[in-house]
Every structure is written in C-alpha cells, then in structure tokens.
From TrEMBL, chains A, B:
GO terms for cellular component: cytosol. The keyword Iron-sulfur does not apply. This is Dihydroxyacetone kinase family protein. InterPro entries: DhaK_dom, DhaL_dom, DhaL_dom_sf, Dihydroxyacetone_Kinase. Residues 363-565 form the DhaL domain. Keywords: ATP-binding, Kinase, Nucleotide-binding, Transferase. It holds the Pfam family Dak1. Residues 7-326 form the DhaK domain. Gene3D superfamilies: 1.25.40.340, Dihydroxyacetone kinase, domain 1 (3.40.50.10440), Dihydroxyacetone kinase, domain 2 (3.30.1180.20). GO terms for biological process: glycerol catabolic process. SUPFAM superfamilies: DAK1/DegV-like (SSF82549), DhaL-like (SSF101473).
Amino acid sequence: MTKIFDKPEEFAATGLRAFNHIFQDVVRPVAGGALRAISGRKGKVTLLVGGGSGHYPTFCGYVGEGFADAVVMGDVFASPSTKSVLDIARIAHCGGGIVMGFGNYAGDNLNFGIAAERLRAEGIDTRIVTTTDDVASAPSDAHRKRRGVAGDIVVFKIMGAAADDGIDIDGVEKIGWLANDQTRSFGVAFDGCTLPGESDKLFHVAEGRMALGLGIHGEPGIAEMDFAKPSEIARLMFERVVGEAPVSSSRVAVVLNGFGSTKLEELFVLWAELEPLFSAKGLTIVAPLVGEYATSLDMAGCSLTVTWLDETLERYWRAPVNSPALRRPLIETEWVPMNAQHVERVEPTYAVEPSAVGRAAGACVGKALEALASALAEAEERLGKIDAAAGDGDHGQGMARGSSAAAEAAKKAVAAGAGPETVLAAAADAWAERAGGTSGALWGEGLRAFSSELDDAATPTAHALRQGVRRMYERITQIGKAKPGDKTIVDALAPFVETFESALGDGQPLVKAWQRAAEAAEAAAQATKDLMPGLGRAKTHGKASLGHPDAGAISMALSAEVIGSFLSTKISK
Amino acid sequence: MTKIFDKPEEFAATGLRAFNHIFQDVVRPVAGGALRAISGRKGKVTLLVGGGSGHYPTFCGYVGEGFADAVVMGDVFASPSTKSVLDIARIAHCGGGIVMGFGNYAGDNLNFGIAAERLRAEGIDTRIVTTTDDVASAPSDAHRKRRGVAGDIVVFKIMGAAADDGIDIDGVEKIGWLANDQTRSFGVAFDGCTLPGESDKLFHVAEGRMALGLGIHGEPGIAEMDFAKPSEIARLMFERVVGEAPVSSSRVAVVLNGFGSTKLEELFVLWAELEPLFSAKGLTIVAPLVGEYATSLDMAGCSLTVTWLDETLERYWRAPVNSPALRRPLIETEWVPMNAQHVERVEPTYAVEPSAVGRAAGACVGKALEALASALAEAEERLGKIDAAAGDGDHGQGMARGSSAAAEAAKKAVAAGAGPETVLAAAADAWAERAGGTSGALWGEGLRAFSSELDDAATPTAHALRQGVRRMYERITQIGKAKPGDKTIVDALAPFVETFESALGDGQPLVKAWQRAAEAAEAAAQATKDLMPGLGRAKTHGKASLGHPDAGAISMALSAEVIGSFLSTKISK
C-alpha cells in the first residue's frame, strides 16, 4: 500500500516538486508541471501532455528532448485545472502551435478542451490528440471513445519526435492520431491500489483471481477469472490486443507495462511467453519496452500495448529521447526473436588420453561417480528431511542434482576418451554448477583438488588416491572454513581421510582401506546426528551451508566393487 | 506478492532469457548471464559483475557501455556457480584483466573467489571488489565486512566508466575500492517479499511498523519502530548514512532506492524531505538517482545510498552510460537545491480600468463574490453530506475552496483597480484552478462567460446581468452536457435564468428580479432533493460530476444588499 506521505492532499504536489529537483538534467519546474530543461527550438510545434498524478512515469516522466515540451500534472487521479493547462501552454509555446496529448477521460477533455479554446482565441493554433488505446473500455467500432492507458508513451513519444524533427502542426496532429488509431492495449489486474491516506484499497480483486480490462482508476473490467499461468496470461492479452489489429503492418512497437506492484522480473517471465506469440504471428517487434510506464500507485497487474508501425511511426519510435521515463539514443537494432538468438556458451572440451591405460582408468572414475550419484539419489529424501530441521530442506536435492550432473559429465568425458584427472575435473565442475549453493561449490572444489593428484595417462595408485582424498579434505576445509565438530561434511571427511591413510600405512589393500575409511565416516556421521539434527550452520546469507556429515559419509561409501575396479584396470592394460 | 511464474525453479532463468531479448540493443545472451551487445575495446579492463536474481535491475541491468562488460546471474537470492562465473569471464575478457564486482555475501565470495583463483592460474589477472555499503550489517570500524546493497550501482558504474576510459587494472581496482569505501547505505523495510512459488512472505514487518536496517534477503535489522512521517524517515536514514561520513568531501552521489512495492511517487515525497537535509549540511548532490535500483522482489521499503566523491569518482559518476538500468548521456548539470530552484509561473496581471465608474463597478463584483464565498463556506458541510450519499463527499469542499479563491482573486484585481469584466474573469479562473474537478471547471467557465457580457468601463446594467447569467447557463450546459432534470446545478440555474429574464421583462427592478430568480432556484433545488439524494451523476471517470442543484441555488442567492450595490455604484460615480 501507499505508505509514504504526510498530508495526503499534498502528495501529488510534493512529489512533483521533488521530481523537478531530481531530474533537473532534463526538466525544470513550472507551477503545476514541468518544462524541458532547455526549451525546444523556436518555431517548433509544442507538445504539451498531462493528466492526473498516481501513474508515474505517466505523465511528468515524458518531458524531455525528443518527447514532450511540457507537462501539466493534476492531483492524484484528477485532471489538472484549466488554468494550469493554460499557464503552462503559454510558457511552453515555442511558436509553432501546440498539440495537447492526454488520455481520453472526462475531466481531462474538459480542462484541456477549454484551455485549447482559449489559446485559439488568443491566436495560438492548438490541437488535441487523445489516447484511446484500452480495448476493454468500448467496442472496436468506437475506438476513439475508449480510455487512454499505457498507449500514452508510444503515441506521445512518436508525436514528440515528429515535433522535434520540424514537422508542422498539421503533420504532428496527423501522426499523433495515426499512432493512436494504430495502438491497442489490454490490461489484467491482480489487485487494487491504495490512495495516499486511505486505509483500504480503492478497489479489490479477490485473492487467486484476476480482473480483465480493469481500468487504472478501478474502472470496471469486462470479466474476472482464476489467476492463470504466464502462458495463459500472455495468450489472453495477446489475443485481445492483436486480435484487433487495425492495419496489416507486420512491424510493431510493444510495451509490456507493470501497474506498480507486479515487478520487472515477473514481467520478464511473462515476456518469455509473450514474445513467441508475436514471432508465430509473423509480427516483428521493434524496440520493445518492458517496465513500469503507466502505473496506478501500488496496483498489481500488467498491460500489453501494441502499436502497428508504418515507416514514419517507426522512425519516430526509434528516434533518440532523453526524458525521466525514457532515455535512449537512436535505436538502430533489429530485434531477433528470442528463439533465434545465439546464446554464447563455453562448450566443455576434454583432453583425449592417448594411452589405453589412461582411458580405462578414466572409465573407472566414471563408474565411481555413477555409483556415488545413485547412492545420493537413494539418500535424497533422507538428506532433505535432516536438512529441513535446520535449513530449507534442499540439501538432499542439491547433492542428488550435483552428483547426477557430475556422473553425466564424467560419462561424456569418458566417451570422449579422457583420462582419470580430466574425467574427475569435468565431474567436479558439473557438480558445482548444478548443485548450487555453498555445499555444491565445496564438493566441486574438493573433487577438483582430488583430480589434481591423478594422472591422465595412468591407473590411479593407492598413493594417488590417498593424496587425492587428503587434497580434497584440505580444499574443502580451506574454503568452507569448517573444523571437525562443526557438524558439517568435514566431520565425515576427517575420519575418512585419517582412517584411509593409516590403513594404507598399515599395509592394507586399497579396497579394504577404503571400506574401513567409509565405515569410520559413517560412524562419525551417526555420532554427530545424536548431538543435533540437521545442518550445523544456518542456511542464511553470511554463513555458509557446508553440508551434512551424512552426505559426506554416503558420498565416500563406494562399494568394494567400484573401488576394486581401480585395481582391475591394471589388468585390462 | 510475486504472482507471475510457472515453475518457481525456472523463474530466474526464464526472466534472464527474456531480459536478454528485451534489451538486445545493449546486451546479448550468454549462458547464465549477459554480455554487452558490442564488446568493449580490445585490451581494456573487463568489469564482470553478478550475484543472485530477485534484485532487478541489480545485477543484469548493469551491463552496457560505460558500465559492466558482463554479468553472471544466480538463482533467486543465490550466488551464481563458479562455473558460470568462469565461463562468462573467459568469454567476456577483453585482454586487460578482469575486475569482479559483487556484493559481500558468503556464496558470492566463494564462487567468484574460486573462479578468480582459477582465472589467475590460467594467466588472466583477476581482481575482486566487493561492495560493503550497508551500515546496518556491521560496525563502522568493520566497513569491508558489511553486506553490499544499493551501493552496487554507484561503485560498479564508477568502475565501469574507469575501465572504459582506459584505466589499467590496478587503477580500476583502486577506484572501485575507493568508491566502495566512500559509500554508505541504510534501508528501512515496511514489509517482506514473496519468493516465487511461496504462499507466504519470506519475512514480515508488522502492520504500522518499520524495520531499520533489514537486509534485502530478510537479514535481521537493528531496530523496529512505528511507521513514521516522511520527514522522520528521511532524517533517520540521513543520520545513519551521513553520520558516518568517511571523508570530508562536500560533493555526493545520492541514490534513493525503492525495494519493490514502494512506488516512485512515494520516493519523490520522501526526497522532498531528504534533499533539504543535504543542503543544510552543506552537501552538494551530484546526479542523484531516485527509483528502483536494488530491489528485493516485492519487498516494501527504501534505502538511501551516499557516495562521497572526489574529482575522479565524480567524473566517472557523471560519465555517459547505456545499460538497461541506467541510460544517460554525460551529465554536465550542476544540481540546484530544491529551495533555490526557480519555478516558472504566469503571474496574474489585471487591466487597470481608467474610469472611476469602472473601478467602482469592479469593486461591486468583488463584493458579490465575497458574499458568494461566505455563503458557500457556511454550506460546506451540508453540501459535503449530500455529496457523500452518491459521490466522494468533497463537493462542499470544492465549492468552498473555489469560491474562496475566486473572492481572493477578485479582491486582488479590485485592489489593482480593475473593472467588472476583469474582476469576474480573474475570479472565474481562480475558482476553476482551486476548486478542482469537473464542477470547478464548469463554475470557472460559467463565470468567465458571464464576465464577457460585462464592460470594464461601466456599471453592469440589468441587461448586461441578464445576458451574463444566460451566457453562464449556456456555457455550463454546453461543456457539462447536462440537461434540466439531470439533478445537477443546471436544475437550479435554469429556473434562475428564466425567472430573472421574465421578471426583468415584466419591468421589475434588478434587486427584486434577482431575488425572485434566487427563490425559483432554491425551490427547484428543494424539489430535486425529494427525487433523490446527492449528486445526479456518479463521480467516476468518464462521467462528469456536474455539481449539486443546492450548490447552484446557494451560489446564486446573493442578498438584496449585494445585488443592490450594483445599482448604487451609479451614485458613487
């Protein structure tokens, strides 16, 4: 809800005063509105726009080079007075006559209309172009009787560019009406807005519902329905707007507008569904806008605006503009449809190992990672439950996702003929990338450190594996900064490494040594569990989540068969 | 709340894909992030920024000329993976080394940190600058341990401009740390955000309260208090931030940032309180930003960021930039404090009437308007109550405000020595301006039409008054499009005009004729009241509120003494 205000009746005027301070690189203050910081060229047509407050950046954000010369602002949701329009028109007039642009609402028609009459009586040629883009507000055969909504930005931008280009008043008026007649908008509301000083919303949309065609001052919509998926919302808006295509042009300016509380990342998600509909219909999008352009205080919802362009309209839509709402240089880009965009990426490459020994050893690493992934997939639910007690319950998912990605990457590397170091390094990177979170990064780094002890051209020796697990342990504790006893994977890794080393030192064979190490890790994980459930460190920003001892124990508990396969690669040589 | 999403886990990736489509005039897609549409000059330092999603335009909006070369985006509120950082860094590297910019959070430190290590191992000089501007997150003597919030935009913008300016990697890193060390932010939260797919907010701020220093992922704040007026919120944020001034520079970049649901017009209202505090402290604001720069989905609240500038930082802060979040040419403007800004306005001028007769007659019009204003002031409450039954209850206020402004304007015109036409025209304009709404515009236009029948050099004749009220009636019905019987002021004006005309036609004296006309208006207003309470037309957009018959009757019911004074002006000649 609208919270920041002192005297509600001064909300609009106070905001306007601040606006004129904030944007003084492009605007300067005039009583009741704003002017361009530097007036337009003498003799040019003056574009004067305006309407009620509460819709920022409509209308005051539209003043600047390549856009409006002046704006007249009314109170929240109220037309500016005739006198304001008149006063500002007289100050702003550059000599070439005035075109007034505003949305088609009774109060604005009245006040701008009277002011235009009086300006004409004073000898100033004054024309009016009203925006009437809201398809929900009247039938298609009464287009010019409709309300003006987010179409404002397209129609006024095009008129402003034409006026700055030196087009005369007949021309600017004609271009303005053409732009309006080729513009259609349709909005869906998810919730109403709160006027400053009011404790309740001006209007409501029931939870879980959405109102189609509801106006930006709460004017009644045309229907209500259950809240839908982005694909359905996109199709619904697209069909309403594009279904009424006023001309056959295949080039369109498109505005996806948020009403206030629907955020830009949500609009992006909607755009991902919306844009393909244009491509499929053979429509080329030109310089689209996705953001907040015609808001209604903190109203939730969004609207789609489409303007069918001819060559002139497109030139002026692409023209440079420098206003608070829209700043951009001349746009020369041709938009490529989303599906046709080239996405740069680094494709993984694997050093191919020339020796058969090395390739066979690589395959053994791949098999070990596969075993590890299936053990963690089996443990996913259990790890999730343990994590849920202290964290957000996603540790099982993360470990399963990471190890599965690692096994997948290892498989690819093995297929490409890579040796053990390369296979394990590829797996390490994939684990970190897909597991996400801090524990994913730790596992990735740990396995990568492990891999550095392997030799692509050779079967891993017991010594290399001993060095590998030690390096892994060191890297994880170095980055994660956890010590044994912190109830992290380190609690399982530490006894594993120590047992493995001492067993090998005692002359035990590799398989046996690994199994004993795995048992030690499992015992340590059990012991930790008795002390406290779940993760030892809170999963909040600023404190790393370093994974659960159980996950460490499960990961290291590879079967004798798997570990044994490292030895058997010697035979297969 | 966050409503538009399909699969919550794909929210960030889908949004990023759309982002890369929408802004293809400045960016191009890379797996996991975005690159500049046109790569930076070969050999320049590469600025790579990144962090979690959910904070748009932080971070992906920061890619473009004069800003970052590339961005790496994580999932909602999660660090990007080491692999993403690495892959994008390798693609984006222009040859002059890489400076990584990100907020100081554990996950980002880990993933960017590991990637930086590996890049260095590959021979790419890689530096890290973390933003640590949030004063609420650690004591002032541990500035570099703090969290990074909206300071990102200032620190990264300055680094990006320096890198594009050809500064080497040591220089860019140094400027980045300097910018960070001279940047402080403090935020207040009014309510939490909703993660896509969650039915409840991630955190809550109790209704009517505000949380000081609450982080943009819900990290605990430092205090909570009752929601305050804009002046108090402004002072509170200002003191926290400026109270920690790290250097004595008097020139500051300032960002007033909305978290998501706190709208720009509210931020403007806050700015009106905030800006004078800077002036009072002798601080000169340079190219301020007020808008949404570091959001937290739909979180409510705002933050203040101040960067103390030296000459170098200011040059790069003012440098041109063309990114989705910030597009502006080189800023050369020197900001003038709000109170010192010249506000253009049209000062009313009155034609001074040379004849004493005219001036005396002007004074009589002034007296009539004074009587009218006091009658409407007296009736304010009654009219408000009538209006409340069908409209928003402000009709009494509007009439009182309008007529009082009219009397005031008339008084000034009389003091300036204006004749009756000028006095009434001045009053008419003032009424329309101050009353607001449709009925204000109608009264203004009506009185203005009336004034056109008066002669500045002469005492109004009975004929002129008869023509005047008729013209007033005609103008009001012409503009308002109401007919008798529509239960508007026309219902009172119509019998007034007819009775006045016929009484004068019958040879009755002016005072008598006016009184009879006023009685007829009053009777008509009473009759209308029996038919229905309140205003005849709904006070909604699209249907004009044309005022209540009572208001018409009261307005026209001037006393015999007032009306008589028009006659007596003959004597005072």
